[in-house]
Structures are given as C-alpha cells and as structure tokens.
Amino acid sequence: MSPITAEIVTIGDEILYGQITDTNSQWMAEELSALGIKVLRTTSVADTASEIIAALDESLNRSDIVLFTGGLGPTKDDVTKKTLCDYTGDQLEINARAEAHIRHLFESRGLPFTEINRQQAAVPSRCEYLHNAAGTAPGMWFSFQGRVIVSMAGVPSEMKYLMRHEVLPRIRERFSTPPITHRYLKTTGIGESFLAEKIAQWEDSLPSHIKLAYLPSVAEVKLRLTAFGENTEAELDAKVNEVLPLIREYVYATEDISLEEAIGKLLLEREATLSTAESCTGGNIAREITKIAGSSAYFLGSVVSYANSAKLDILKVKSETLSNFGAVSEPTVIEMAEGVQRLTGSTFAVSTSGIAGPGGGTPEKPVGTIWMAVTNGQETVTRKLSLGKDRLTNITYTTRAALNLLRLQLTGKWQK
User: Fold this and answer.
1) Which of 223, 253, 283 is the last residue of a domain?
2) CA dihedral 337, 338, 340, 345 (to 10 degrees)
3) Could you tell me the CATH number of the domain that includes residue 24?
4) pLDDT band at residue 214 under the 50/70/90 scheme
5) Which pLDDT belongs to residue 35?
6) What distance in Å separates the CA atoms of residue 66 and residue 57, rounded to the nearest whole number?
7) Is the pLDDT of residue 2 over 80?
8) Domain for residue 416, yes or no?
9) Could you tell me which residues come within 8 angstroms of residue 350 by beta carbon, excluding any fewer than 6 positions away?
10) Crossing angle, helix 49-62 and helix 80-87, to 10 degrees?
C-alpha cells in the first residue's frame, strides 16, 4: 500500500516575524502520523495571495493532502479564503449554517452582528463546509484535481476542534491508510544520549516494521514505538516488556501522559496529598500539578516563599539556618518542605530554592545552583542541580526535576 502524504502550511506574517510560535504544525503532524499519514513538509508563508498560491502549487505537486491554517479572519489582511476560492475556480456564497452560528455567537454576548461578521460565513460554493463550533471562521474542505485541500482557522483551539471533529474523520473515510499502532514510554531523569546507550542492543533487535522515535523535551524523553501492519499490538507489547527492565527507574508512564498526570495517579492510588513550598520556581510546580483535572483531590496548596521573610514567618525556617547556610542550601529546602507539610497537613511536600538567573550568583553559588527537597514526614530526600544561566529554562528544568524527585520517593525508587 502506497503511503498517503500530506503537507502543512501555516499562514501569517506574525509567524514569520517571530511574534507568535507555530505550535499548530507540530500538533497536526502528530495527529496525522497517528493515522498513518506521512507528513512530507511543513511551511510558513506570508498573508499574500502570491505566497499562498506558490505554496499550493508546490504542495499539490507532491502530496495527497494540503492542510492550511490561518488567514481566515474578517479583516482585509486575511486573504486565504478568497485566494483558495479563486485558485479552485469557485465563487463565495453565504453558508446558512455558518451565518446562524456566527450570529448566535455575537448576539448571545450582546454584540451587534455586522455585515463584516456576516461575510465570515461566506465560503466557496463547491467546498465542503466544516463547522467550527469553537469560533467564527468556518473550515473548508476542497476536493481538487484528485487531491484534498483543507483550510482552517489559525487559532490553536479552533484548529484542534476542526481537526478532531471535521477533518480527521473525513480523512479516515476518504483514504485507506496503512494500519499503524503506537506504544509509548515516558522517561525522565536521563538524557537522550544516555537513554539510547542503555537500550542500543534492544533497539538494534527491532524488526523492520517497528520503528523507534526519540522525542526529547526539557528533562524528559518520550520513546514512541510504531508498528506498521495488521495485528501488531501483541508484538509491540512484547517489545515494551523487553525494554522496561533496562530503564524502569526512568520510566514514569507507559502511556502518553504528562509527568504531573502520572504523579496525580500515584497520589490517588496511595490516598496521599501534596503541598509545595517554592522559591525559585515561583509557584510553577503548583501550576503544573493543578493543570490536571481532579487535582483538588490530592493537592492541598502552595506557599511561594520568594523572600526570606516568608520562609521565616510562614514556613518557620530557622533564622540560624538562613544565616549559616543561606536561602539556597540543603538545610533551607529541608526546613521549607517540612514547614509547608506542617502548615497544610499534606502527606508529601516539595520545596525548591535556587538562583534562577541571569544575575544573582556568587563564586560559591553561581547562577543555576538549585536545591530541592521532598518529604513524606518520615524521610526527607534532597537533590542539588547545577544548571545554566537562562532563567526560564532553569525554572522549567527545576520544576520537572522536583516532580521527578517526588515520583522517585512515591515509588520507592529514590537512591542517593
């Protein structure tokens, strides 16, 4: 079976100027790959008819499906819809369903429904209208010269709605894609190269129809096993069971979930609760934990003790600890963790204190020096990090490392 191919084109000067980050392409490519669609290229182009047409000409020459996002707003600089209409030799007409939807959105919010708003409901007469319940810009599906062209809003929430509810179901119906199955191993606490070294022999033993992908992010590496063909589930499960003993201490999930979601499951299983005392992370650990729906069942609260006075007055860190060792020290984070645990009555508590940068370091404690602690009331474990000088990276890395330290204590895998 020949692979079905696709290209993704994001439209917008704001992307090219670096004013916003194109997250749409990555998300769409992952969803298409899960269907067995091979993405050949992703491209960003300006909001001009000539650039859109050039991208169309190139993409249609190579691919079965071309997916556009962006350029569907009501203002004059949004030219995608008219360009696609002209390209396919069609004409715009008001779609009754789109008009009723947009009118309802405006009138339900007490806003006037103007002619400019009404024109957003205009779509090429021969395209398939894709209902955008998440916004005002209709999606469009064109069957053109044996290829498919799809146009969607560039707002990520609207694009994702259209992909999930309108586009992906049509792709499944239209194209015979090869059977494809995925398995995931989510790891943290080990770098990509070290991970690859540990599983090198196992990776070399994989048959040709099973592919392994390394997908790294800050302080994490996702391993994705992909099998092509019928009835591969049992074989994939066997391969996962083969590799797990080699890297078990680093694997926090065998499904595609986040570290904070995995920790939430562990806390629920143990009927345990959590609190945080954060200095250099500024509440970011609490933010990550509370992103998970249902986290109120196990997360009790957080103290962002950025100033020493907050450490002293709220967490009851001893003044002599701060005087003798400083805020960025092992004794301080131990007392911070134990202090917030007493304050909230949580089963587990996490603390962080460090020099996130880019300034504030000393020869003894340079920028990137971070201490963290996790306590369960009977045992308190600590870890020191020596990171770089980028502030946001340091905060993100520390957050992931602190969550992993909590995971290790929760699972009994902590080793000094």
Assistant:
1) 253
2) 130
3) 3.40.980.10
4) very high
5) 85
6) 10
7) no
8) no
9) 274, 275, 276, 277, 278, 285, 337, 372, 373, 374, 402, 403, 405, 406
10) 50
